[in-house]
Amino acid sequence: MFERSDETLVKQALNGKKSAWITLVKRYEKQLYNYALRMVSHREDAMDLMQDVFVAVFRNLSSFRGDAPFKGWLFKIAHYRCIEFYRRKKPMQSLHDTPEQEDLDDNDSPELTMVSGQQATEVQNALKLLPVNQKMVVEMKFFQHATFEEIAYQLGISTNTAKSRLYSALDKLKNHLELDYV
Question: What is the similarity comment for this entry (predicted)?
Fold first, then answer.
């Protein structure tokens, strides 16, 4: 069986085919949830953010022109929703909030699980120290495997700005993580 393209699913969803919309949601819900979780560090907030993004996408589906891939358009909306989230939450958030751990694989040894869990926590804590615009570029580059052109499109910035933000963020992460191990 062949997989229908996003653009085909969008057209079908706009014509009232509920299963096409459900297929789009299922195709991107895990990626979108993981993006939101890395950005906001709390499961409940990530779930709320994901649902908010899908509601916004559904309401604005008719404005999708197809100039760029649907995934890019979806994550551009997610980016703006993350910015809104930070604007609403910033006065209430503590810099010392600890990120929640994802469920670990049962096949890992206890030692490996402990070390990888500690390292993941250290990286997540270091990511929290980055400015939001740098954090988003790091997330998109390393977790979504987006190209600099895709990052630039989704964030509405130039390719050079995306590169600059990434390299600046990596430098900050390197310095922060080196302090933990020196």
Answer: Belongs to the sigma-70 factor family. ECF subfamily.
